[in-house]
Request: fold
Amino acid sequence: MSGRNSELAGLYKLSVEERRRKVAEFSGLTLAELEGAVPAQGVDMGVLDRMIENVIGAFSLPLGVATHFQVNGKDYLVPMAIEEPSVVAAASHAAKLARAGGGFHSTISAPQMIGQVQVLGVKDPHGAIHRILEEETRLLEIANAKDPVLTKVGGGAKRLEARVVESPRGPMVVIHLVVDVRDAMGANAVNTMSEALAPEFARLAEGRSHLRIISNLAIHRIARSRAVFPRDALAFGDWKGADVVEGILDAWAMAAADPFRCATHNKGIMNGISAVAIATGNDFRALEAGAHSYAAWKSRSGGVIAPLSTYEKDAKGDLVGTIEVPMAIGTVGGATVSHPTARMNVRLLGVTGSEELARIMAAVGLAQNFAALRALATEGIQKGHMTLHARNVAMAAGANDQEVDEVAGALARSGTVRIDKAKEILAEIRARH
Ligand code: MEV
Reply:
């Protein structure tokens, strides 16, 4: 797999069949393996029926691969499942520009998640916290006895943190159990351990335990990525590279100062991260909750919400982008293993575990964000978006496979990508033929 190159120029021009062949070749998979697990139709109903309740069928999203990604010197094709046009193309283009500056450099902290236990009715909350922390070693042993496999591979409960939280219903003791979950997303391990410790906490605090659940604000599981986007590579059309750099810096500054913009800025980041999460069977709601609450948590001494990325200009005038985002994802357990397409996507990426996947996902988040800011700071977002969106609208207007490209092209050129216009164009085309 070494020496593989994720550039795959012109992949978008190939047929689905040809693309599958290229992707299989890149990932060291046989075409049969890929076709068996990444069906063009639907996944085995038996598998889906075991995943959730009351299954009546499958809901398909398009699965694409983003090209050009190089993270810590290694090339990847990144599977992304998403309904929104332009996202995969934008990520690929950003990765191409980042590649010109040496690719993405990503790191991940130890994969530590927090389990929260709420203890109510405590007379001396500060004393209670001390009594609990005095017994930390014994308490961690109780937690670790719940998951000997995790402790054997170097994970397990690592420490306790506790504080008094002032709430609308008075003070409560909240204890955090910090667990290294290794390659799992971790919710099961953390919740089991938190439930096991809750009676101990209640006894020591002389109160009663109430909630026992993971926190999605995963501040101890942070993925970071950095990329240099060379100024000269940013020039396009009438835009000079230096102007694009300044434009992106101004766009970022608005997100840093205005919560209304920041929400959208961070949403763009999650376009990339959640698409990879879905493709790999990860819990994208946990990631979304983590990212947005982290954005609020980061700015606790300042504004309302902080951008998850930063942009600066380095000494050479190149654009330096960085991202920092909680990354509670796994490559073992849950749908990452039970769903054949998710399992195949992890293989397609060629990652060895959750930490490598987290490093890639941080890079994808940065790429997506950079691509959005670049478009917004120059020609606007609608031009690229509408070209692709026009195809959806053409299909919705009733264009068949032979008509869709012609209708979409005329629609995009008209500048009015709406269903009524598409119907009008379709009627004209049909009248002509
Ligand atoms: C659209 O899904 C995402 C963007 O709105 C992100 C942004 O504005 O930065 C384009």
Summary: Residues 65-109+221-379 form a domain with the 3-hydroxy-3-methylglutaryl-coenzyme A Reductase; Chain A, domain 2 fold (CATH 3.90.770.10). The longest strand covers residues 156-167. The pocket of (R)-mevalonate is lined by residues 84, 264-265, 267-268, 271, 372, 376, 381 (CB under 6 Å). Residues 87 and 271 are 7 Å apart (CA to CA).
